[in-house]
Amino acid sequence: MKVFLRSLILIFVAAFLFVYAKDKPQPKKLPKYKNLISKIEKEFSSRNSTPLRQFGYEFFMTPLDVSKLVLPVSENYKLGPGDEVIIYIVGLPSNQEIPPVIKTIVDREGNISIPNLGVFNVWGLTLKETEELLRQELGLDLKVTVGEIRTFVIYVAGEVNRPGTHVATAVNTVIDALSIAGGVKKTGSLRNIILTRKTPSGLKTYNIDLYDVFIKGKPIDLTLRDGDTILVKPIGPTVAIAGEVKRPAIYEIKGGETIKDLIELAGGLLPSSYQYKVILQRYENGKLRIIEDSLTNKAFMNENLRDGDLVLIKKSADIPENSYSIEGYVTLPGVYEYKEGLKLSDILNPDLFFKDTNLKFAVLVRQYPKGSIPKYIAFSPEKVLTGKEDMELKPYDRLIFFKLGQSVGKKINLNLVKNYVLVSGYYKYTGPVACSDDCYISEILQKDLILKDTNLNYAEIERFNPKTLQREEIIKFKPIEVLNGSKDIKLQSWDRIVFYPEFVYEPVRISGEVERPLWVTYKPGLTLEEAISQVKFKYPLGELKVIVKQDKKVEVFYLNDLRKHPSPLSFVKLKPGTEIVVKRVKEDETVTKVYVYGQVWKPGVYKIGERTTLYDVLKAAGGFKPMAYPKGIVILRESIAQMQRERLNKAMVFLKAQLEKEIAGYMQAELPKEQKEAYKEAFAAKRRLLQEMEKVQVTGRLVGLNIPPDI
Fold first, then answer.
1. Which of 112, 119, 434, 688 gives 20 to 30 Å between its CA and that of 668?
2. For residue 320, is the peptide bond before it cis, meaning its omega torsion is within 30 degrees of 0?
């Protein structure tokens, strides 16, 4: 019976504990960082062959339990209410009734009480200062330490897994507080954490960058105080680095960091890194762009990083010393055995190429001896096959071939290739052409590549400065003269040969502060307004002017005048070959001017001052021509146009209000059917009138002036 009762009691206790444990609220489980892949990680990993993870967040995989911490307390620890103070009396005389160990608590006023010895205020004093105070006051040799450390409430907000109030101690740091709060989410910043603290002088903020701890190993000596608030802001711009670095990962940047800085964040390069080919993936206008360059290029290394950039450091290929490689658009790409004295003519044959392989341009990448800076040498497979050109190969040479029409710039940086020219425009072959130091336009221009509508009387060679890569000269020539052998021009590396469609006149050229330079086909009567309407400007119209060069004459016009109706620029007639340069208006530039057109001897633009009269302007324009009609002179003025605009708007508002009243009255009246139809037609006519009035363009015309005809 006793055994049965004992078993029954055990079953009852077990059932009670099960129900209690089941009903007891459980602490919120934290996410497992190992299994949590953020959107940022997914995006970067999709662009790389191996997964990439955000740096630093694994630090918070194991949350901190402050109740289980045993932390050392230094002599600089500052006492406060709630701290347990332990005083050890050293060498106490036997005749004194003082215990060798005294334990006391700092009360709310910051005092400690020692029986039979007194009360002492220690709030804000360090352990060392407290020890010196008691020694001086009591005249005893003693040692002071801390037992149980005071706890208090702090506040953690923002991108943490457990935001809210938490309990901490005075020896805990900011990192401890973040761990207590479950760690920083991958949507939170590790580099922009703000601690706000109340001080006697007001609120004080501290900016904390955890990369100082994780990468540089700098300790965070900032310990917590009662009432501290910690805010983890959303993560800032992120970039990633992959490949041959010691710590490939996704890193948060503050702004202004370069590719060189990113490599340092990743712990530096591995010995296997290939410094002559680095790939930068960058989003521009929502599209992913690939940029290839070298770690030896200082300008590239100092390139400022942007949000979403991915830098890929390639591995140095383990190519045998007695080999060369054939790559690209050929029938037999691969690595081949190199033999001393091997030439291009020994390996290039018609069977190596497809029908649409580019035979006018290929690139030999030479890195001999191994590890040296690569050289990019253009050559013409066509000339090698016909025996006009040849070159001896070296070990490790790479021969890269392209498809006709393929964008070469996606595979190699054309700025690194020196011996080539670029053909564009109305020509059967457009793109790069290998061109030696002793290369002439007659080698490029071939009769069978000319289109039916290629202009044989006009073409251009744009010449670029080899150091700055800026266009410095335009050489005009007639293709027909090159074809018949009466003229030839020696070419330089990076020359751009432009062929135009057939037309009678030389085109009008627009350059300067535009999205891209443009050649405008000339036609009789072409105006300045029509020409510049075909380009996109880099800046607002009010900040730009155009310099028009034609007939050895230079005129300046301001694009802000395009807003006028009609625009003064619509009266400027252009001629074949006119050059238009768009420039920004300087701050101190005077732009007060008038335009004079029509039956005067010198039409154009004239600057005016405060006292300039109409007579002065007409006199400067050379006076009237014989066919002029002075009484019919028209002045277009912006202030008058503004007044006309305001009056027109007021009239339209009045008419609309009147129409609405009439419609409201019509809706309430009981009228015969015929009369209703008549009203509807009248309302429709008034609506059409309002629509026409909205289309009216005010001109600001001032007429009826009495001008002497003998100016």
1. 688
2. no
